[in-house]
């Protein structure tokens, strides 16, 4: 990796996350097929503000339901208040309260894989902590704009207590 593509990742803050009910569009991916995730987001964006029970404009990318062979489900979604009246086209997940290391991603979305690589291959092994078997998620602030690189993108990594 050359100097121009190196990603600066600040030390994480630690938080106890609250219960979240996330609904959106989802699909199954592997590390080799993650290039399909931006396409999933493109399909999801027109649904913003139209999902029953949507709480706000904060969006989430949730990685969950790992199969132990490198496969996982990814849901591009928003927080909702209830499952009542949620159309079948949407996938949903409950994110239970959990301890997290929270990393702020700086830079373009193209550099997001490098940030994840740093978290999993460098920070986690050196931290002495272990990842919990719980959903990991990206949290995009209401003012997040991927084209202008404005707003905040956080990666919430679940940790064992």
From TrEMBL:
Residue ranges occupied by any AraC effector-binding domain in the UniProt entry: 10-160
SMART domains (UniProt xref): AraC_E_bind
Protein name, entry field: AraC family transcriptional regulator
Superkingdom, natural source: Bacteria
Species of provenance: Pseudomonas jessenii
Pfam families: GyrI-like
């Amino acid at each position: 990796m050359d100097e121009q593509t190196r990603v600066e990742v600040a030390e994480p803050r630690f938080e106890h996350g609250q219960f979240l009910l996330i609904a959106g569009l989802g699909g199954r991916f592997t590390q080799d097929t993650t290039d399909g995730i931006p396409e999933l987001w493109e399909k999801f964006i027109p649904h913003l503000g139209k999902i029953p029970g949507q709480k706000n404009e904060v969006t989430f990318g949730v990685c969950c339901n790992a199969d132990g062979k490198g496969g996982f489900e990814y849901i591009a979604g928003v927080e909702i208040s209830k499952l009542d009246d949620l159309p079948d086209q949407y996938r949903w997940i409950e994110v239970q309260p959990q301890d997290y290391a929270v990393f702020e991603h700086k830079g373009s979305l193209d550099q997001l894989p490098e940030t994840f690589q740093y978290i999993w291959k460098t920070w986690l092994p050196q931290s002495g902590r272990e990842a919990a078997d719980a959903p990991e998620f990206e949290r995009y602030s209401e003012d997040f704009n991927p084209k202008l690189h404005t707003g905040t993108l956080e990666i919430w990594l679940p940790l064992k207590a």
